[in-house]
Every structure is written in C-alpha cells, then in structure tokens.
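Design job #97: recover the sequence.
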C-alpha cells in the first residue's frame, strides 16, 4: 500500500495517552481537544490530516465535507456508527477501528449486568446507603440452569457465552453470519429468533447498530418472550426498542433490564433509567484501563502503519477500503 502523509492529528475525546505518545514518536503533531461543539469541530477539522475519536464525536457528513485535508478517521474502539462512513469513503477518507481492544471489557460488563439483574445488587446497595436492612425485598434467583439468549455471536457475544456457561447457564443464540457449527464449538446452540424468544430467561444483544438490528427486540418480540424475561443491552441504544422496553417493564412482561447504551446519550428521557427494575450505566462497556490502553495504542499504531505504507489487512477494519462492511 502506498504511504499516506499524515502530519497532524486531532484527538477529540479522552483516549489513552499512549496514542498521542506513539503518534508523536513517529513525527506526527497531535492536538487534544475534548467536548467540542459540532461548529467548533467543523471550524477546526480542516487543519488536520487525521482524526481520532471514540463514540461521542459525531463525524457527520457536514464535518466530513469541511475536512479538506483529512485522510484518516481512527475510531479508538469498536462501533463506527458515529461516523458517516459512506460520506468519508466518497471523499477518499479511510475509516478504521480497533475492533478487539475492548471486547473483554464489554463482555465483563455484560456479565456484571446479568449477575446484578439476578440478585438486585445495585438496588440492594442503594437501600443500604439509605440506612435500610431489607432482606425480603431483594430476593433473587440463581443463574444456574437458566437459559441465556445471545443475539449477535461475534467477538463479545462469544466471550459472554463462555463466561455465563461457567455459571451453569444454557446458552442459545442467533447470528445471520456466524455459522451454527462454529458457535456450537463454544457451546452456543443457534436457532431462529422465533424459536429463541420463548425459551430465554435472559436475553443479551451484541450486534452492531444497523437498519436490520434497530428495534430487534420490540413489542412483538417481547410478546413472544417468557413473562418476566430479563434483558441486557451493552451494544447500541435502540437495538432494544426503548419505548417497547418501558411498556414491557410496566406490564411485567420484562422483569428487568441492564442498559449500558441509549438511543440518545446522555438520555434526555429518564423514564427508563428511573424504572425500579432497570440497572443502567453511562456507556461504560469499554471504560477500563486495559481496554483504553489497547484501543489507544492500536489506533496509533494503525495510523503509523498507514504513514509507513504497511498493509493493514488483518490488523484492523479499514472501512474506507471495505465499504461493504457494516
Ligand atoms: N458498551 C460498550 O462500551 C461497547 C464496547 C464494545 C462494543 N460495543 C458494541 O457491541 C456490539 C458488538 O460488538 P462486537 O465487537 O461483538 O462486534 P462483532 O462484529 O464482533 O459481532 C457482531 C455480530 O453481530 C452479528 N449480527 C449482525 N446483524 C445481526 C442481526 N440482525 N441479528 C443477529 N446478529 C447480527 C454479526 O454477524 C456479528 O457476528 C457493537 O454494537 C459494538 O459497537 C459496545
Ligand atoms: O463501540 C465501542 O467501542 C464502545 O461502544 C465503546 O465506546 P467508547 O470508546 O466511547 O467508550
């Protein structure tokens, strides 16, 4: 691959300091500026050859249109749904991410939410802080022997499966791309969603946000689930339809939800977060020292590889070169 000239990079979010250090060691000038408004980003972006973001910076078509020198958008993390990839590709800008850097962290948070839902840990902890000693209200249920439905059997879905199997859960799943014979080797039996919904005690979603995954869990699918099913979304807001979830929580069809992600972040409508059977986090799936170190380092090394003209195939997803990828 021909080398790409990158002399200046803007890091617009809190990315591990190793990212800046590696870029600078390779002769790239780095500016770190967080919490920019869209107008500030539009005004600044023309001065940079590269942009490094996480999930909060919205790299929309108008930002890309103003980015006259931009050659690379590096996503220090997994989801690129905050980047208008078709607009970038049209302008010849490479979009790449670090898809495996935060897999373990996101899987561990998913498991933490599943365990918290089964034993009401956050609610009980809150009641202790209020000076109460309520041993009846927080009666839980074992995960042992329960059925976990995993929708999306990619990197994170696979890691969640193995961890929850160690708690004695039966893992079933659905993925249109991962072959059933492959997921069977990790102990996940695949089936259609129609077959999956009524069997699950818990459901966790691990798909990208795509037109086909928006509202994957909606009024209709909730109605097909066991009464009291508990759900977790550590993937992207909207994969579980938020209004349908609230209706299901209110009717008791859904017995609890663990949410790390929201359609709007931070959410303006607090009805879900405030529901007594909802446990929520402010998009913390990737927020560990280890995940941030990997993602920050990986994205910097990938940019340096581009500058040196190294072939990146196998090292990262380069969305600019593979516009067919989700
Ligand atoms: N909460 C966080 O901080 C956090 C951290 C990391 C990743 N994520 C998100 O988690 C999600 C999963 O990440 P990953 O690294 O496992 O991705 P991945 O690409 O490895 O796996 C996604 C899987 O979803 C499957 N899929 C696509 N469409 C589907 C559909 N309609 N039904 C069922 N499965 C479908 C794909 O075939 C793939 O196997 C992404 O949305 C990512 O952005 C969130
Ligand atoms: O897709 C991702 O990598 C996660 O949602 C993490 O996003 P973050 O880097 O903004 O924490």
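Job complete. Output follows.
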């Amino acid at each position: 691959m021909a080398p790409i000239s990158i002399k200046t990079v803007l890091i617009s979010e809190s990315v591990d300091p190793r990212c800046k250090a590696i870029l600078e060691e390779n002769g790239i000038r780095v500016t770190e500026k967080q919490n920019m408004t869209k107008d500030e980003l539009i005004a600044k972006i023309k001065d940079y050859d590269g942009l490094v973001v996480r999930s909060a910076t919205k790299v929309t078509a108008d930002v890309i249109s103003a980015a006259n020198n931009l050659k690379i958008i590096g996503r220090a993390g997994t989801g690129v749904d905050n980047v208008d990839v078709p607009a970038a590709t049209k302008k010849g800008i490479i979009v790449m991410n670090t898809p495996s850097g935060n897999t373990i962290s996101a899987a561990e948070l998913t498991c933490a939410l599943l365990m918290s839902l089964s034993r009401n840990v956050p609610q009980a902890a809150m009641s202790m802080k209020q000076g109460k000693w309520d041993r009846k209200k927080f009666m839980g249920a074992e995960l042992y022997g329960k059925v976990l439905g995993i929708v999306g059997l990619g990197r994170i879905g696979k890691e969640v499966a193995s961890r929850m199997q160690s708690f004695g859960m039966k893992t079933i799943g659905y993925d249109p791309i991962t072959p059933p014979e492959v997921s069977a080797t990790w102990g996940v039996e695949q089936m259609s969603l129609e077959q999956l919904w009524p069997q699950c005690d818990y459901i966790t979603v691990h798909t990208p946000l795509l037109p086909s995954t928006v509202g994957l869990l909606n009024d209709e699918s909730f109605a097909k689930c066991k009464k009291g099913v508990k759900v977790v979304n550590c993937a992207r807001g909207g994969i579980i339809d938020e209004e349908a979830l609230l209706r299901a929580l209110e009717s008791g069809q859904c017995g609890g939800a663990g949410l790390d992600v929201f359609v709007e972040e931070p959410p303006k409508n607090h009805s879900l977060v405030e529901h007594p059977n909802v446990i929520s986090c402010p998009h913390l799936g990737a927020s560990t020292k280890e995940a941030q170190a990997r993602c920050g380092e990986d994205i910097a090394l990938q940019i340096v590889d581009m500058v040196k003209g190294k072939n990146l195939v196998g090292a990262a997803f380069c969305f600019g070169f593979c516009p067919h990828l989700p």
